[in-house]
């Protein structure tokens, strides 16, 4: 790993892309209603959540994911194709961890695919951004 190969503005944009994907992914018209139902949550319960805490920690963990992925991609040979591939593979890794935890928590396969699918899509996009913006 060559840290000089990390483009930190690209990492920041990659981290922010997780918010965009999440906003679409968990929208009620996409997977939001199914996610709420399978999570046992109502819209009222979600509204009562601490938005500062939720979005603050989401920003922190998205940035952590993007920095980690950028460290793996810190090579002059990295391009958009390899970035997206590495992001996809990282997404499969996180999907698997989500699936393991969710199975022990007796969650539905639908919920596993909703949450795990978000990881695959968002990390693939993060990797593509990091690989493209060299």
Automatic annotation (TrEMBL):
It holds the Pfam family DUF1761. This is DUF1761 domain-containing protein. The chain crosses the membrane at residues 6-27, 54-74, 80-100, 112-133. Keywords: Membrane, Transmembrane, Transmembrane helix. It comes from the Bacteria.
């Amino acid at each position: 790993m060559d840290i000089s190969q990390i483009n930190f503005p690209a990492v920041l944009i990659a981290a922010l892309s997780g918010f965009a994907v999440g906003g679409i992914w968990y929208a009620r018209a996409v997977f939001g209603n199914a996610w709420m139902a399978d999570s046992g949550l109502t819209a009222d319960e979600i509204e009562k959540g601490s938005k500062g805490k939720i979005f603050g920690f989401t920003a922190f963990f998205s940035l952590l994911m993007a920095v980690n992925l950028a460290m793996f991609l810190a090579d002059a040979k990295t391009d958009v194709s390899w970035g997206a591939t590495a992001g996809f593979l990282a997404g499969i890794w996180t999907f698997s961890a989500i699936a393991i935890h969710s199975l022990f928590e007796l969650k539905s396969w639908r919920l596993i695919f909703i949450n795990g699918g978000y990881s695959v899509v968002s990390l693939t996009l993060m990797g593509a951004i990091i690989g493209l913006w060299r």
